Amino acid sequence: MLIQLLREWPPGFGGVERTAHEWAEAFKHSDIFCLASPSVQPDPLPVAYGRWCLPILRIAKLRIPLPIGSFWKLVLSPQHLHGHLPSPAVLFLVLLLQLLQPRRSFSLHWHAFLQGWANRAYQLIALKLLRWRQLTVITTSPVLKQALITRGLKAQQVLVLACCLSAPGEALASHMHENRKICSAPVKISSNPINIVCIGRLDSYKRIDWVIKAVVLCRPHFRLVIIGDGPDRARLESLVSDKCADQFCKFLGKLSEAMKFEALGKADLLVLASHNCHEAFGIAQLEAMACGVPALALACPNSGSTWVSNVPSMPIWNQPGAEALADVLRTFSADPKLLKLAAQQAKDRYDNVFCRRLWQEQLLSLGIAN
Questions:
Q1: What is the pTM of this model?
Q2: N or C: fewer beta carbons within 10 Å in the chain?
Q3: Residue 151 and residue 70: Cα distance in Å, rounded?
Q4: How far is CA 158 from CA 1, 130, 137, 164, 199, in A?
Q5: What is the pLDDT of residues 61-71, one digit of tens each?
Q6: Other CB atoms within 10 Å distance of the CB of residue 108
């Protein structure tokens, strides 16, 4: 049995929640404890495990677990406890329980490095504590593993397990890929627009505005579909209107899993434009690659996003901004065969590195909760 502790309520739409959800699905008799009540209804994915919301005291953004109610169910369990960082409250509770229960087994998940001086100070302290307590740390890419070792963790402390798709999600993607093979022409005609898709929460750090501006700079060769919702949507819609780009850019809002994969099945390229290390993996890239859609991510220090979608035919986007993205996009419009080759390589990379069968084998090989 495995018990997980994280800030948010899974499965949700974020990478941390999705990762915790898939771990719970993989282990029998699994429970999850959270520091936040559900923010998404209904659940975007089916749930077959127990979920508990810990009572907390809020001080600004900090959440402090209170020793009442479900707190004691977490504390008194002898089962392996796996905590998901970067939440300070999760780290504090795991370290406290390790001191109180020295015979209990523990591990932690390092999902991302965060920016800002306060976050950097917290992360420095967290890494020193993890090294001192010799806790096993699991992260999502070799890039993040090397960053953790550079910052003081021992190499043997850090294990790598990439994120994965849900079993239904992988099945939908496989179906979309088969449809794409049936419907695709031998070579994309250069006069046809290339369809770009962006998927995710519409927040400022996602830099969807760069993608919109790049599409405008490259018109009429590209079309953009934006899937998701969030606080930045109104600004982005205003930007599209100001650029007179309504015919090139469409907002679809939040979609069901089936509708999302249907939209991916019609896309030629997914773009992940996040400009900081908060976006450390990008599960949307896996969704695209499983459908046979190549993914382009901005190279960012302390992020594994570019590593996820890296294939030989994909140009490197290493300079932030719309102009640099437009330069990369023009390589595809200039050579349609390049996009087709990248699509096949993306599908092969998913099958050989990220598919669910391999992920399950790698998860079990970690020895967590054995």
A1: 0.90
A2: C
A3: 35
A4: 22, 11, 5, 19, 30
A5: 788 888 898 99
A6: 24
